[in-house]
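User: structure tokens for this one?
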Amino acid sequence: MTVRIKICGMREPADVRAAAAAGADTVGIIAGVAVDTHREVAADRAGALADAAPPFLSTTLVTMPDEPEDAVRLVDRVGADHVQVHGLTDPAALDALRSATPARVVAAVGHDDDPARLTGHVDGLLVDSTDGAGGGGTGETHDWTESRRLVERVDTPVVLAGGLTPENVGRAVGAVGPYGVDVASGVESGATVDPERVRAFVDAARGGVPA
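Assistant:
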């Protein structure tokens, strides 16, 4: 199975175009989060970035809602195809979110959580290296052996995140066998999305460049 690729942290239309040109499957747009990150944009800006996606490139709203209703309202404003929620791991809350939005719901969980308990309540699980506030984008890898065990235990698609780069994503895909991979800091130069690193990441994830 071909691994799906998400490039996260879009802040400019040029970032979206770079991800599309490289062959990514979806772009992540961060809004409504409770952590300090240079990748966050305002809701209206997030909507404009989602609108900038060309045909066949899907969009993912990345957010940290207090309640399912917060995520629903933001998805409606942004118009994203998927919503990736951090900090919302109660099965009943995730059920409520899925029933209230047409967007596919992905729950972000830490590698040391028990993600398997959310199977059946979400459309996907994103396993990330999280900080103390529950946010991802730390740029740190975690134990890929545990992620591999999760992939083998659940039917829900598992997306691997946390410290992935063009230099290590090929090894990560081989070690974990995930449905998809997610990158933010690994394709930045400074605090800016680097089109060359985006392309290198996509190529390496799909086997175009030796890991």
